[in-house]
Design a protein that fits this description.
Chain lengths: 686, 167
């Protein structure tokens, strides 16, 4: 096989332009770019070989375009950064000069060479190998035409927290249809549970509920609460989602939220743990999550409703409802929707404080989590805004322990970002509600943000105590009289250098933020990735923070990483804008890396048909051949690799292109031949 | 590479096939994180590990690679649903073929590396290079040349070319 003698039917002899980028010092600091440039010039087919400081800059791109016109180049190879970063840039540049963009190929000598190699000589050698592979590959490149498909303008927003609400409203206000799907019976998410927000101390409900009602009443928003996406198929611009609408046993369209049924329930006393108040209060089997729940619709919990358990309830709720909204025979139903883009705003969960047993959560009744305290200080919460211990007393001393489940080798290594600020806020609110002495135990105070450091300053002036040190344990073992019947916080005060024991009446654990348990399931369903911590992975940490590796799927809010409200809202707006920019373009260009069958070689064995995950391959009974539907094909190439007769080709990843790359990489392997013998001559391959 | 025939200077040559969505991205991440690893592994990007024809692997070995590394998404994470499972099946079969050809199975390695596992790219590549270094060169092209030496020498220059191409 002599790959360098190849030409396209003798008419299209490769005339290659090679460019190597210095990328400042990023590449030039570890790779001898001049050497590689000279080496490339010696390779067969290379007409032009240049090095330039920044290939991706305008002058760099113009260099390519000028050469294409001047030397009639018909293949372009650029050795620079990852194709995931700049392949598009250079394709566009190539296309602008009148050459089909698929005659361009990119060599990754930054992420794959200069940044990961320590030895200058080795790096240069590796770069040369990769360049040789690329030059030998482009011999087999063919012109391709991009597919254009229309975009469905409807958007699916998954998760009705503040991020989802903001994204949905932004898109709906632009006149596009939005499906907002929320798992719980109401939208609002975690923000609805908070009392005040830092650093301005404005009331969370006051700023959130207007947005919640706006969602409910917006003509462009279809709000589906108590629903989950079960399945999603398709691709950017044309997704089909199957949404499970869980039965709430109340007909949503009929219920007006008068709550007469709740009063009428045969359970006179509420006796079941209220999830919204984290078990700090009780609810009945028929309930509404919280007063401002949106939609304002009651729901019945089949686990606790006596009619579901024994079928012998008097059904007083049905009797009282004059709108006949209660339907105990309701069943789950599935709705299918077609959307073009998806925004995932599935949020976070708080760290389970029981996983840090030294703090005694679940063991000592007066150890609370920060979220429980948020509910407690809330006027509509379980204690109507009173901060009290489990036995109903006002605490005289309260300890707030930072970094529970954050910055901890044993659980989560990351900083949850919001805890310092919300701990300060809770310290302020506890002081306001109880006038107790408040201690904050912190490792480092992290208060970057507009008005945040000032808030910290304000708290210090309010007389809150700050002790630097990670709390070792919380114990009820009293060593001195004043520790009797109290919780003692044992901590090393690292600023003074002493171990302190501080007896308090109440402990608040500032729990960190974690990915939701099913984040990985969601990521699989939507074909996106998770970072090591389990949060959804963005396409680029800096330049594409709300995009994912799957086109048309965007992420926003705390599902991408710990975030406070302003950041979540900002991301939601960004994700909405990204979705809108796709929608407004009307159509989307798809990579032409699809597969096709050479009919004359197909033996009709059908082995490819079952392999295709998209059922894009059909068997033509008349011709006894397989046939690929290019619209359905996503270009994975699984069928290509499995075809026994080699009759399937994948554009951009054709067999001969990959063999070209292999041969190029391994040229002279095991055969003694010096590099400088290659100039313009045929190269023999064994 | 004149030193290639010098046993002391021999360096493993490894070809890696990385899927675009997980492992190639992870390799990029390793780069961005400035993790340093052995320069012996050279990556060929494919869209999915399911695209990797066993013949790519055999061809690589036949052309002089001492080992082949395949990187795909973790089971269940495949961008194309199940391409990685297809690769896994082929990989199992291929291992049997390699065995029957007398090629150590450690020379071909399959690893699931997700987009966030830059560290794993480094570990796997370094391990792979160490393994191959221990196994020594595979040297198929050299061996073939050796077998055909007599044959080749008797041919004319013209025929010789054809013969080599055929091999």
């Amino acid at each position: 096989m002599n790959i360098f003698m190849y030409n396209n039917n003798g008419t299209n002899i490769p005339n290659i332009g090679f460019y190597i980028c210095h990328c400042g010092h990023n590449i030039a600091g570890m790779v001898d770019v001049t050497d590689v440039q000279k080496y490339a010039a010696s390779l067969p087919g290379v007409t032009v070989s240049r090095d330039y400081k920044y290939m991706c800059s305008d002058p760099g791109q113009e260099l390519i375009q000028k050469d294409i016109k001047e030397f009639g180049l018909n293949r372009i190879v650029v050795a620079s950064c990852s194709p995931l970063l700049h392949e598009h840039t250079f394709r566009v540049a190539t296309e602008k000069a009148g050459l089909n963009p698929y005659f361009f190929h990119m060599v990754n000598i930054r992420e794959n060479v200069s940044w990961v190699t320590q030895d200058f000589k080795e790096a240069t050698k590796k770069a040369k190998d990769l360049v040789r592979a690329a030059i030998s590959r482009v011999f087999f490149h063919k012109p391709l035409i991009k597919k254009e498909v229309p975009i469905n303008p409807d958007v699916l927003v998954l998760g009705g927290g503040i991020a989802g609400i903001h994204a949905a409203l932004t898109i709906a206000n632009a006149g596009k249809k939005v499906y907002l799907v929320e798992r719980e019976a109401t939208i609002g998410g975690h923000m609805a549970m908070f009392d005040k927000t830092f650093p301005t101390l404005d009331c969370a409900a006051c700023i959130l509920t207007p947005k919640m009602s706006a969602v409910k009443s917006h003509p462009n928003i279809t709000l589906w609460t108590y629903s989950e996406v079960e399945k999603i198929e398709g691709f950017v611009g044309n997704y089909k989602a199957t949404v499970l609408r869980k039965p709430r046993y109340v007909i949503e369209e009929l219920c007006v939220g008068c709550m007469d049924c709740i009063d009428a329930c045969i359970y006179k006393e509420a006796k079941y743990s209220d999830e919204f108040n984290l078990g700090l209060s009780m609810r009945k089997p028929i309930y509404i999550p919280f007063p401002q729940a949106t939609p304002q619709v009651v729901l019945i919990d089949p686990e606790t409703c006596i009619d579901f358990k024994s079928h012998r309830c008097k059904k007083t709720c049905i009797d009282i409802c004059d709108r006949e909204a209660i339907d105990l025979k309701q069943t789950a139903k599935y709705d299918e929707i077609n959307v073009g883009t998806v925004i995932l705003t599935t949020g976070f969960k708080t760290f389970d404080a029981k996983r840090a047993p030294q703090y005694g959560y679940g063991k000592f009744p007066n150890v609370f989590t920060s979220l429980e305290l948020e509910r407690m200080v809330n006027a509509s919460g379980p204690t109507s805004g009173e901060v009290i211990t489990r036995d109903g007393k006002k605490p005289a001393k309260v300890g707030i322990v930072h970094c529970v489940g954050s910055r901890d080798e044993k659980s989560n290594k990351w900083c949850s970002k919001v805890c310092c600020m919300y701990s300060l806020k809770l310290a302020h609110l506890i002081k306001e509600h109880t006038d107790a002495e408040v201690y904050n135990f912190y490792i480092d105070m992290r208060t970057p943000g507009k008005g945040y450091e000032e808030f910290y300053d304000k708290l210090m002036n309010e007389g809150v105590n700050f002790i630097r040190g990670r709390v070792a344990e919380i114990t009820d073992w009293a060593l001195v009289a004043e520790e009797e019947n109290k919780l003692t916080i044992r901590v090393e005060d690292t600023l003074v250098g002493v171990v302190r024991r501080i007896p308090v009446d109440m402990v608040v654990l500032s729990v960190g933020l974690e990915p939701r348990e099913d984040a990985s399931d969601i990521s699989r369903m939507f074909n996106i990735s998770c970072s090591n911590e389990g949060f959804f992975l963005e396409r680029h940490p800096k330049l594409a923070p709300v995009s994912t590796f799957t086109d048309g799927i965007f992420i926003a809010g705390a599902c991408q990483g710990p975030k406070d409200i302003p950041e979540s809202v900002a991301q939601a707006g960004a994700a909405a804008a990204e979705a809108l920019s796709l929608i407004c373009a009307g159509t989307i260009e798809l990579e032409p890396n699809t597969a096709s069958i050479i009919e004359e070689f197909c033996s009709g064995c059908k082995s490819c048909i079952t392999l295709c995950p998209y059922t894009a391959i059909l068997y033509n009974e008349d011709t006894k051949k397989a046939c690929i539907n290019e619209v359905l094909c996503k270009g994975c190439g699984t069928c290509v690799a499995s075809c026994p007769s080699g009759s399937i080709i994948q554009n951009m990843f054709e067999d001969e292109q990959i063999y070209g790359e292999i041969e190029g990489l391994l040229k002279f392997a095991g055969i003694e031949l010096a590099d400088n013998k290659t100039e313009g001559k045929e190269i023999e391959h064994a | 590479m004149p030193e290639e025939n010098n046993k002391n200077k021999w360096e493993p040559r490894i070809i890696a096939f990385f899927c675009n969505w997980c492992t190639y991205t992870a390799a990029d991440l390793a780069g961005v994180s400035r993790l340093k690893y052995a320069p012996n592994v050279k990556v060929i990007r494919v869209m999915c590990s399911g695209r990797i024809d066993p013949q790519f692997i055999l061809q690589s070995l036949a052309s002089g690679a001492d080992g082949v590394l395949i990187g795909g998404c973790h089971p269940g994470d495949c961008h194309y649903s199940e391409g990685n499972y297809k690769m896994l099946r082929r990989f199992r079969l291929l291992q049997r073929i390699l065995k029957s050809m007398g090629i150590e199975k450690e020379r071909v390695r399959l690893e699931w590396i997700s987009a966030s596992e830059g560290e794993k790219v480094k570990t796997v590549i370094n391990e792979m290079v160490d393994t191959i270094r221990e196994l020594g060169p595979l040297g198929i092209p050299l061996n073939i040349l050796e077998y055909n030496k007599d044959l080749i020498e008797t041919k004319t220059e013209e025929n010789r070319k054809e013969e080599v191409e055929y091999v």
